[in-house]
């Protein structure tokens, strides 16, 4: 069983913000593979289904981003899953809008949701898929930027990034992290 967790902030005020790209990707996976995200538990909404015949669970933590680790730890414990069966999908302000990057481990890179997960699980070996949200110069205070919405000129790049994220998650579920990394990780130019 694989678990894909889409990070974001709960509630309609945050639903289409840059920080909620992880949730947007998980919702697209749910729609494409007919996985109903209706169950609740571990401070999350989740659903179970399959991707190309492989069992998968999708989860959307309903904690705020900075407390995502508590929900993720609870979900892993609930289903007796190892962190290697987890893929965290989140935004990345350092990547250009629409670009994705998969990693098997590493630091949080300034992402407070990832930092919370790494802290709660006590390890850096957490597979993650970062979706780029940068579309030009970003001020030092990231909060207004990540909590802002995408404008109409960014829609095409956003949709391309989300489509790539969905495809990468599918490869991860069916063929593993290395195969997904080999196919989707590109150098930033």
Characterize the structure shown:
The chain has 189 residues and is α/β, with parallel strands linked by helices. The protein has a single domain, classed as Rossmann fold, CATH 3.40.50.1470. Helix content is 35%, strand content 24%. The chain has 6 helices and 7 strands; from the N terminus they run βαβββαββαβααα. Strands 2-3-4-1-5-7-6 form a 7-stranded mixed beta sheet, with helices on both faces. The radius of gyration is 15 Å and the shape is globular. The termini are far apart.
Q: Brief overview, please?
A:
With 189 residues, the chain is an alpha/beta fold. It has six helices and seven strands, in the order βαβββαββαβααα. The protein has one domain: Peptidyl-tRNA hydrolase (Rossmann fold).
* Residues in helices, as a percent range: 25-40%
Span between termini: 36 Å
Number of domains: 1
C-alpha Rg (nearest Å): 15 Å
Derived from helix and strand composition plus strand pairing, the structural class reads alpha/beta
Number of strands: 7
Main features:
globular, single chain, 6 helices, 24% strand, 189 residues, seven-stranded mixed sheet, 35% helix, alpha/beta, Rossmann fold
Strand and helix layout:
Elements (H helix, E strand, L loop, with lengths): L1 E5 L14 H12 L6 E3 L2 E8 L2 E8 L6 H11 L7 E11 L3 E4 L8 H10 L6 E7 L8 H4 L8 H21 L1 H8 L5
């Amino acid at each position: 069983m694989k678990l894909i967790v889409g990070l974001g902030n709960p509630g309609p005020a945050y639903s289409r913000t840059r920080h909620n790209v992880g949730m947007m990707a998980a919702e697209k996976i749910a729609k494409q593979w007919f996985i109903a995200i209706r169950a609740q538990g571990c401070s999350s909404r989740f659903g179970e289904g399959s991707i190309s015949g492989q069992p998968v669970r999708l989860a959307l933590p309903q904690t705020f981003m900075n407390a995502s680790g508590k929900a993720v730890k609870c979900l892993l414990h609930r289903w007796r899953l190892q962190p290697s069966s987890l893929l965290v999908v989140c935004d990345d302000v350092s990547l250009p809008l629409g670009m994705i990057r998969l990693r098997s481990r590493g630091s949080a890179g300034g992402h407070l949701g990832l930092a919370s997960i790494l802290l709660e699980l006590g390890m850096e070996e957490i597979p993650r898929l970062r979706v780029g949200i940068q579309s030009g110069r970003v001020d030092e205070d990231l909060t207004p930027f990540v909590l802002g919405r995408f404008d109409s000129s960014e829609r095409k790049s956003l949709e391309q990034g989300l489509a790539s994220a969905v495809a990468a998650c599918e490869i991860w579920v069916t063929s593993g992290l290395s195969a997904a990394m080999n196919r989707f990780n590109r150098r930033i130019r």
